[in-house]
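Box 4.2: Ligand-aware structure prediction
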Amino acid sequence: MTTPSPAVLADRILEGTLDACTPGDLELLLSDAVDVWAVMEAAGRVRRHRFGNRVHLCSIVNAKEGGCPEDCGFCSQSKAHATHARPGKFIPTQAAVEASARAATRHASALGLVTATRGLSDGGPDLERMIEAVRAVREAGHTEAHGSFGFLSDEALDRLVEAGLTELNHNLETGRSYFSKIVTTHTYDERIDTIRRAKARGLRTCVGGIFGMGESVADRVELAVALRELDVDEVPLNFLVSIEGTRLAGAAPLPPMEMLRIIAGFRLFLPRQNIFIAAGRTHLGQALPLIFAAGASGMMVGDFLTTPNRTVEDDLRMLDELGLVPLRCGDVRPERPASTAGPAAGRRLPVVA
Ligand code: SF4
């Protein structure tokens, strides 16, 4: 395998070859074979071309905490783990609207309603509650309404779209080969199926993963390839925050420069997508502002589902000092290239207005 020049890859991407970075290139970019600062420089150039000084901010609210029947090894909300998370009821509709208003004051353009569930069943009260919450958040108009509800039938997806859901989050967590080491109660293909059916209904899709779970570079490349094949819209990159009581308790955080290398590699492999940094970004310490130099185009603000984040004030001050401006609800979202049907080669990388 010839060692790729990150600068040449960035040039080719900016000339319109969106898939210039091959899986083989990415494997080298994510290893120590290429200087991390060179990867970041190239990825930062692609981000600046695509997003300029605009950043996407989003917030989430735990719309139903704990007691999940799935066994994801990293998750504090799985029934399989004895953690600080306590099984709770579904969030009242008014509380969802208030969370959306709070998210808007944080300059978040979207509120993600997240339920610790295997899915929402047709005809069940839980689906009806979330449909009502989505509708209320949209009608209030503070933010877009996004959702992360687990598996959904076609009918449930249709009804959520009709209520005003604009985007579905359904992370792949890791590469296909490593997935069964992390989750045994459902399969990779089940997750992919849900994402495909959401896309077929015109929903934007938010699909990412978690790094630092013991996966290899090859596993990280597999995840990136799956995201490219699915042509998802937003890619949350999470870094494991190991939680007492989970199967991954005690795992050491990834070193900051390895985190930045992952962000930069994913930017070069997925130049169109909004790549935003979510859980675990505090592991970056003083290097946090470098996520944007490494190609990130957004971040999650406010607390995560069961773990705290930096304060919103600190995050907004950091953006201000970096000259970065949050997109607001209703602003132009990153548009898709004119043709999304065929291979990525030959499409110009659109610029976010
Ligand atoms: S499906 Fe979601 S809430 Fe349930 S254990 Fe997995 S990550 Fe946690």
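In the box above, the bound molecule is iron/sulfur cluster. The CA atoms of residues 207 and 227 lie 7 Å apart.
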